Predict the structure of 4Fe-4S ferredoxin-type domain-containing protein.
Amino acid sequence: MKFISVDNDEEELSCKVMKNIKASKDLGLLRCVQCGMCTSVCPAAKFTDYNPRYMIEKVLENDKSVVEYEEIWNCFYCYTCHSVCGVGNSPCEVNQILRQIAVDEGKEDKFLKPLASYGETFLDIGIGGIPKSFFMELHKDIEGWLDLKENLDSIREKLDLGPIKMSEKSIDEVKNLLKNIDFDKRVKKLKKSHKKSQ
Ligand code: SF4
Ligand code: SF4
């Protein structure tokens, strides 16, 4: 299938966001009153310099440099902002679109490696999981984490819980589904674009 790009650099950023396929039909971006409720409930804003209200302000001001703000990569899509916004805006959704623009324009390749690792893990085990490349870092941050990970099956058995790993048959089914939508190729592309940027 071929896609035709109709990108127009002169277009207002807010229009570009509203027209994006990821934007909900009733996205209230243009109704934002800058009340700051989204920022007050945002966990990412609590612990980092990320500020969803400010991000929306920049979009409404047509400040395209917002696409290059590193802070927007701190959002982890919990949708809390989405659920509290009184005018039906969704900073979470807007964030996803801004990141997609950044990726399309090759501006934030350095953030893609972790995403590729999550994709690879999904392909490997058939469900979401922490990529192996993060194990040692987690072990440093959380005492006993690696021991827990290594002994998880026996711990679960003692608790009368089944194995967490899916059967090979189920993993193969998920893999086939993912391959049918070219998920594996997209993960490879993500990894490749990251290498180019190093
Ligand atoms: S997006 Fe919603 S919650 Fe956030 S500042 Fe705008 S109106 Fe307020
Ligand atoms: S989805 Fe992102 S912007 Fe919204 S509350 Fe969660 S971390 Fe914050």
